[in-house]
Amino acid sequence: MIDSTESLKRFMRVAELGSFTKAADSLGLPKASVSQAIQQLETRLQTQLFHRTTRKVQLTPDGQLFYEKSKDVLSEIEELETLFMRDDSQVSGIVRVNMSQPMARHLVIPALPAFLQRHPNLNIEISSEDRKVDLVSEGYDCVVRTGEVEESGMIMRKIGEMQQSNFVSPSYLAQYGTPKSIDDLQQHYLIHYQTSSNNRFDAFEYQLDGELHRVKMPSRICVNNTDAYRAACAAGLGIMQAPKLGAMAMLTSGQLVEILPSFTAPGMTVSLLFPHRRNLSKRVRIFMDWLSELVQNQLMHH
Questions:
Q1: How far apart are the C-alpha atoms of 262 and 26, rounded to whole Å?
Q2: Extended beta strands in the chain, E state
Q3: What tens digit of pLDDT does each residue of 122-143 get?
Q4: For the whole model, what pTM was predicted?
Q5: Are 288 and 274 in contact (CB under 8 A)?
Q6: Longest CA pairwise span in the chain (Å)
Q7: Separation CA 127–CA 98 (nearest Å)
Q8: Nearest-angstrom CA–CA distance, 168 and 92
Q9: How far is CA 98 from the centre of its chain?
């Protein structure tokens, strides 16, 4: 008989990865011992935790409830195990985090080696998608979000602001000249941006005396993700308003040029979201503290 925490861990991994095989691989166990652990759990609980189809393994409603409770129980056990740990460098385990690609690429990953050197037993799983992830069902410990956030049942911690700037490519300037004032914008093009919730950003935004102004502008192209947005700007298709962080590399290489520095859109709030648990496990807390500090140091000084 495997001890309960072990079988809970196996159950949770199957729930997160939606497959016995993947769960077994990631735990370095034979598949049989994982499905056996689940069967024993189901027998003991007298309920079915998963719907098993040929394609994927999905949680039943009972399974979902059991998953959320198990998560709490395991983080309690983890807390117990680290209760008397004087030295944070001994913390072990995996931190699963989701963030945007520019943030992962330009900010977090370059700084990770130093962090991981201080915490040799930690592993970080970073995923980046241009969509909203569901923290609980996808098993993330925390998510970094930029801009407006409304998410129920999550704790939100503001960790900084990302400054925005206006960018164009040298070829755009050659064709349309450099706008020097807001009035000049009527002779220019803006790259429009459509969000997943179908909001279309079709106006040049800037702040003046603490007030937000929006100037509707014509466009030759509309995109719906940050990579295409930057590519469209580099191709000379119009003005882009975006956080400086994602454009740093292209600025340095001369693919993009900054314009109208005194008329920038308001900064975007960077927040950390994490599921509501009474006590966050030590490894998640350590990672989140490091991340907040990193964001504050880097973004504030650009």
A1: 51
A2: 50-52, 57-59, 93-98, 122-127, 142-146, 154-162, 164-168, 192-194, 200-201, 203-208, 211-216, 222-223, 240-243, 257-259, 268-275
A3: 999 999 876 666 666 667 889 9
A4: 0.69
A5: yes
A6: 75
A7: 5
A8: 45
A9: 3
